[in-house]
Inverse folding.
């Protein structure tokens, strides 16, 4: 079991961001609020507006 753990630990490349090293979102940073909250909501809304306009043009 320990050998397997050591083998798996060797697989993680050094100097790259790993999931265990990530930090939670900082909502006091305007960039993170824009990228992770506002932008996805805008994309979602624009997608449905685009779909609706395509349905009107097809008729």
């Amino acid at each position: 079991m320990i050998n397997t753990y050591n083998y798996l630990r060797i697989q993680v490349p050094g100097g790259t961001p790993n999931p265990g090293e990530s930090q939670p979102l900082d909502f006091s940073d305007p960039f993170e609020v824009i990228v992770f909250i506002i932008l996805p909501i805008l994309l979602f809304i624009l997608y449905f507006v685009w779909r609706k306009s395509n349905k009107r043009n097809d008729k």
Notes: The helical segments are 2-11, 30-58. DSSP finds two helices and no strands in the chain. The two ends are 64 Å apart (CA to CA).
